[in-house]
Design a protein that fits this description.
single chain; alpha+beta; Nucleotidyltransferase, domain 5; 5 domains; 5-stranded mixed β-sheet; disordered N terminus; disordered C terminus
Length: 454
């Protein structure tokens, strides 16, 4: 049906809807941009409002409305100089992305949806091709990657996930709520992991690192962060090394004794129990438990560190499950696409990431390393905020407050008395001072009462 009464409102300033046609799954809108075009003529130098020579059609895609695709047919004005009659180009459309034939709000919404849903679903939502959705995802991901800076957590979790035909290291912040993914690397070589740890912003904050049995992560942590960091080998990976032996009658008893060790309270008890368990193994059982025995020989301190720290890689395993769900929803896909969706699926890139005005880096708001630099009110009443990171504009630290006790004496408030005689003299003078204070407050109340004013 056709409706010229304006049942569909673009909600964009200075735009007028001339015609609407609502089909089954598509709304076709004919609209015009009404603001007069001001420009400078390149021929005669005239600067002012240009005349409209004619109008040409330009089709763009807008945000969906009521589950229907919205297509806007814009009657775009071609301008000419009123003085010399030379062409002055086409009318500027501030709400339209010229290079892509989309409205700006449509691009933002597409960026939001592209990180959380498959390319096929987003393409069907906006009436575009899968290639357009993937190109949008790649464009936003590349923009964020150019300026993204990762803040080092207090507890770092390292694991790997099979993505696009290879194991990829996954780094997780275990000290924050929800255990957000910090990054997913392309390979687990020593130099790649070392470069990531070295580039972490403020890596001196890292106190604990939870890892699996792969020795390359332990070696990279020691090379970059040194011995000050406590490495904890995750207990789940320790148990995983002998999970396949439980169905054997010869190894079931040894596996049960090993499970009982994790219920002990202290590291000293666990160390003694591991030694006793090793001594009880026969040569045949030692062959079955060879992987675990090798870890107890070379990484015993990492395994026993769990009893002192309680740190596990459970948050990293939960994120690995989330990555697997993204792989299933994406029906495969390249490593770059899965990585972008895994990193940004829980946020809206153009809203939840704040960009530093100085270094152009991107930060999450919850990192508390970003501060408001300036507030500016726009003509339409909106407030525009600019931000700066801690390195570009240092955040002022609170001044230290003297928390030493203050004593009340005849001379007034002062420091704590140094001798017993001074303390006794303060105690003797305190009742009189409190009585004087009560009398002063009573006099103030009497002066400020309504009856005193009359």
């Amino acid at each position: 049906m056709t409706d010229k009464s304006g049942f569909y409102n673009l909600n964009m300033v200075d735009w007028t809807v001339d015609d609407c046609e609502w089909l089954y799954s598509c709304i076709r809108v004919t609209a015009r941009y009404q603001r007069d075009a001001t420009a400078t003529c390149k021929g005669c130098g005239y600067h002012g409002v240009m005349s409209v020579k004619d109008r040409r059609k330009k089709d763009v895609t807008d945000v969906p409305f009521a589950a229907a695709i919205v297509e806007i047919s814009i009657q775009r004005a071609r301008l000419e100089c009123p003085e010399c009659g030379k062409s002055a180009g086409c009318q500027d459309l501030p709400d339209i992305v010229e290079s892509r034939s989309f409205t700006k709000r449509c691009i933002k919404m597409m960026e939001d949806e592209a990180f959380g849903q498959s390319a096929e679903k987003v393409a069907a939502m906006f009436g575009v091709s899968d290639w357009t959705t993937r190109a949008t995802l790649k464009t936003v991901g590349d923009k964020i990657e150019r300026g993204r800076k990762i803040a080092a957590p207090r507890i770092l979790g390292i694991d790997e996930k099979w993505i696009s035909g290879s194991y990829r290291p996954v780094f997780v912040d275990l000290s924050s709520e929800g255990s957000p993914i910090l990054d997913i690397l392309s390979d687990w070589s020593l130099i790649t992991v070392e470069n990531f740890l070295r580039d972490l912003r403020g890596n001196w904050r890292i106190e604990f690192v939870a890892v699996d049995g792969r020795d390359v992560y332990r070696q990279a942590v020691r090379n970059v962060l040194g011995d000050r960091v406590t490495i904890v080998m995750d207990r789940w990976h320790v148990g995983k090394s002998f999970v396949g032996l439980r169905h054997k009658a010869t190894t079931e008893a040894a596996a049960r004794r090993l499970d009982a060790i994790w219920k002990l309270a202290t590291r000293k008890e666990a160390d003694a129990a591991f030694a006793k368990w090793e001594a009880s193994l026969s040569p045949a059982l030692r062959k079955d438990f060879s992987t675990l025995l090798g870890w107890l020989g070379s990484r015993r301190d990492d395994i026993l560190a769990w009893w002192e720290t309680g740190v596990t890689n459970a948050g990293t395993e939960a994120r690995n499950r989330q990555i697997q769900e993204i792989i299933s929803a994406s029906r495969g896909g390249s490593f770059e696409m899965i990585r972008a969706r895994s990193l940004y699926a829980d946020l809206r890139p153009h809203r939840d990431l704040l960009q530093c005005e100085k270094c152009r880096g991107f930060f999450r708001d919850e990192q508390r390393e970003i501060q408001v630099l300036n507030l500016e009110e726009q003509p339409n009443g909106h407030i525009t905020m600019t931000f700066a990171c801690e390195e570009c504009v240092p955040i002022p630290q609170p001044q230290e407050v003297d928390t030493s006790p203050i004593w009340l004496s005849e001379a007034g408030w002062g420091p704590e008395p140094g001798t017993q005689e001074e303390s006794d003299r303060y105690d003797a003078a305190l009742p009189g001072l409190l009585e004087a204070l009560d009398a002063y407050l009573a006099d103030r109340r009497a002066r400020s009462s309504p009856s005193a004013a009359l």
